């Protein structure tokens, strides 16, 4: 056991849950994994301020610099280039070891200035890209490639709300497979629904029309995005899908939902190395995802924003489930081995 007095101070900057998204869940699990080796300091970038964590939106510049100054290592998980740049400049002024994890990167949404600022700071930092695909955009010698998935600590995961459990139970008793998907916020990318809630509703409608017995649970953790959730609720009512499409409008433990589901859907029109996909595969579920990035082995792929392609895969998956109804959960020892290997990677390559 490392002595408390000898622990290095590790500052982790990024969005802390809630709301729950891929990055915030990664940060939560990473802290759980590393807190025995480091004294963890936190700076939150989430819109939802927590009483026990310093949030950038407090605009307390003095406390921000103070937290940076007392840290030995600074690990940035920010998604916005300007936040990365501010943290980079402050870290360099204070002469701190700096690590940046890049969870996603769609160049189509980046201006010339944004891309060049990112390139500048990545060259002068230790960088972790969550996929080979993102890494190839920068071709850096100082970069690591490591997917962001960390196995959950089930003791820390909340149980599903009773009303969701009951809804799922009722559908399964009627012979339906449960398909779940999620969105941290309802935002746009390339002037389209980024998380594909619209596509999911259309798929549910077509499943009913084709008598494919799949019911959908779609979780939106934060309803303050650009796209208005009431428009989707109206579409569900218009299609008379309320009995087949459960739209949940607050944060839950999504991996607890994955445990109850049969199919995991990732219909995004841009992506990184999606936690949702990794969690589904980890729990040996059927995972369907768009072809916007290279997906892990075992994923069923459909053409991005193409309903016909999605329905073809949905039909294939439902037939596979009928042929092979038994799905075994990953053993606990596999979970522990993965967590240990991930921790070893960080301690050896990143925080050494």
Keywords:
352 residues; alpha/beta; Rossmann fold; 2 domains; seven-stranded parallel sheet; six-stranded parallel sheet; 12 helices; 20% strand; globular
Q: Spatial order of the strands in the main sheet? A: 3-2-1-4-5-6-7
CATH architecture verdict of the largest domain: 3-Layer(aba) Sandwich
Low confidence ranges: none
**Molecular shape:** globular
- What is the chain-wise order of helices and strands? EHEEHEHEHEHEHEEEHEHEHEHEEHH
Whole-number total of structural domains:
2
User: In whole angstroms, how far apart are the ends?
Assistant: 17 Å
Number of strands: 15
Helical residues, percent = 25-40%
C-alpha Rg, in Å? 21 Å
**Mean pLDDT reading:** 92
What is the topological layout?
Layout: E1 8-14, H1 22-34, E2 38-44, E3 54-55, H2 61-70, E4 73-76, H3 81-93, E5 97-102, H4 112-123, E6 126-129, H5 132-135, E7 143-145, H6 162-173, E8 177-185, E9 188-189, E10 192-193, H7 197-209, E11 214-222, H8 229-238, E12 245-248, H9 254-260, E13 263-266, H10 275-282, E14 286-290, E15 300-302, H11 307-323, H12 332-350
Parallel strand pairs: 1-2, 1-4, 2-3, 4-5, 5-6, 6-7, 8-11, 8-13, 11-12, 13-14, 14-15
Antiparallel strand pairs: 9-10
Helix pairs in contact: 3-4, 7-11
């Amino acid at each position: 056991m490392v002595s408390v007095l000898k622990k290095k101070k590790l500052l982790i900057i990024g969005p802390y849950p809630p709301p729950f998204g891929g990055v915030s869940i990664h940060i939560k699990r990473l802290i759980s994994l590393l807190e025995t080796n480091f004294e963890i300091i936190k700076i939150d970038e989430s819109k939802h301020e927590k009483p026990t964590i310093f949030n950038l939106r407090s605009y307390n510049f003095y406390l921000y610099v103070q937290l940076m100054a007392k840290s030995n290592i600074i690990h940035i998980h920010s998604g916005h280039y300007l936040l990365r740049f501010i943290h980079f400049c402050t870290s360099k002024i204070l002469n701190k070891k700096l690590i940046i994890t890049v969870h996603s990167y769609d160049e189509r949404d980046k201006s010339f200035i944004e891309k060049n600022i990112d390139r500048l700071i990545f060259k002068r930092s230790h960088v972790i890209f969550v996929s080979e695909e993102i890494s190839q955009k920068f071709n850096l010698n100082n970069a690591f490639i490591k997917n962001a998935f960390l196995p959950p600590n089930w003791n820390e995961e909340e149980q599903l709300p009773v009303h969701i459990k009951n809804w799922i139970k009722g559908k399964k008793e009627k012979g339906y497979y449960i398909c779940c998907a999620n969105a941290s916020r309802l935002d746009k990318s390339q002037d389209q629904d980024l998380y594909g809630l619209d596509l999911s509703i259309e798929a549910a409608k077509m499943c009913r029309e084709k008598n494919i017995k799949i019911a959908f649970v779609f979780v939106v953790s934060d309803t303050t995005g650009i796209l208005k959730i009431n428009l989707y609720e109206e579409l569900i009512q218009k299609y008379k899908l309320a009995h087949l499409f459960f739209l949940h409008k607050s944060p839950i433990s999504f991996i607890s939902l994955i445990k109850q589901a049969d199919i995991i859907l990732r219909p995004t029109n841009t992506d990184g190395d999606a936690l949702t996909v990794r969690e589904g595969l980890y729990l040996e579920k059927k995972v369907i995802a768009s072809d916007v990035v290279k997906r892990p082995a075992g994923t069923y792929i459909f053409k991005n924003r193409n309903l016909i392609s999605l329905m073809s895969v949905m039909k294939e998956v439902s037939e596979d489930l009928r042929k092979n109804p038994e799905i075994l959960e990953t053993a606990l020892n596999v979970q522990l081995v993965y967590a240990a290997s991930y921790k070893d990677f960080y301690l050896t390559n990143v925080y050494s």
